[in-house]
Write a structure and sequence with these properties.
Helices cover about 30% and strands about 15% of the residues. It has about 70 residues and is an alpha+beta fold. It has a domain of about 40 residues. The longest helix has 12 residues. This is Z-ring formation inhibitor MciZ.
Length: about 70
């Protein structure tokens, strides 16, 4: 199971029973998901990464920007 924290929310990936078990575990410490996110938000040891809707142009690639489909 993986937990991805983003600026606009959180993504839990894994099997359904893993996610349910994790939420049950968190329920003992936090009353809402929002309170859990607020406590985790400031304690991230990894640098914040920002995602872009358009990929950066590689050297030697064409100048056309194509939409992501």
């Amino acid at each position: 199971m993986n937990i991805y924290l983003h600026q606009r929310g959180v993504v839990l990936t894994g099997k359904a029973w893993e996610i349910k078990a994790k939420l049950k575990e968190l329920r003992h410490s936090y009353s809402t998901v929002e309170s859990w996110l607020q406590s985790v938000e400031g304690t991230s040891s990894r640098p914040k990464r920002t995602a872009s809707a358009t990929a950066r142009k590689n050297a030697g690639s064409s100048a056309k920007l194509r939409p992501i489909v």
